[in-house]
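Write out this protein's structure.
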Amino acid sequence: MHIVETLPTTATLLVHMLLMFQFEGVSGFEPDFLYPLENITVPQGRDATFTCVVNNLGGYRVAWIKADTKAILAIHEHVITNNARLSVTHNDFNTWTLNIRNVKREDRGQYMCQVNTDPMKMQTAFLEVVIPPDIIYEETSGDMMVPEGGSAKLVCKARGYPKPHIVWRREDGGAIVAKSSTGRTERLTSVEGEMLTLTKVTRSEMGAYLCIAANGVPPSVSKRMMLHVHFHPLIQVPNQLVGAPVNTDVTLQCHVEASPKAINYWTRESGEMIISNDKYHMTEINNSYYSVQMKLVIRRFHKSDLGGYKCISKNSIGDAEGNIRLYEMEIQERVDAEDENMEEDVETENTEKRLYNGYQGPLTETEESSLQPNISSGSSGSTSDTVLRSASFLLVLFLLI
């Protein structure tokens, strides 16, 4: 059974009137399709083109029909349907094309290229219209706030064709802490599904989560959702006892964790609030969504700056404080100078010992003879030694008298 036989009565008559007319003297060869009609997949809004190649057409005519609705679209080079987006062309040989501009979802379906032979010859192809994903914002979660230890459910809905696939990721690349169906805690880089459930949320899970929708039709789309985890401030002090020499700059530090954002400030132990000026310089460095490093620089440290300091943090949930005590530290150069003086004293003492390691007091005969230079051996040498010893002896006697 061919398609035209299934058309409504009026359409059938129209097709027979327009298609069954044949010229006299046509060739005895029957028309045949040179190539099959190819299926087409195009994104919504693009153009689609079907190409039908017929050999030995002779006096026969080519028609385009939308098979699922039985609607006649065009006959030979004339558009029948009332659709300005459709057009047909012929290359004056054997190729006929059906062009559909700005394709819409309703254009999806089966298309037929038909020749009015008896029985009629035809070939069909399917037009698939795909739609890129799109987030349904009215059905998708926005930014959310939960107390630490609570639960959060993030929902993401998307439309498109084929149906989009939803994946959750953290913007910073961190792990998503999720519970499996068995109740076991898992740390995952991504989670699939329209709903992301987080239980017993901790401050480390605070941050931006991305809902990514994709269906193979570019572009993929995503929505960013911020998860805020609220808790009272917590302060950690790296060094609670800090020493510094007089007339130097000294830095005090405190690490604060708080959400929502806290008000942070410094005081002396007396309760006096410290204000930034030429003496004090205060800064804050954000390490994460909830972590801040507080710094207090005391310029030209003086004895009047000795004592206790407090770093204080307050938010809508609670407050916390850290304590630091500042003391004076001797200058290292002075200690080094004292060490050098001690080394010099030791060196002097050793030198004196070397200098006085000789003979002291009046010389004796034996001592004097040991200090005399040696004379070459021989008889003259013996005589000289005797004379010298005698002279030395007389000199000692003279000194003693």
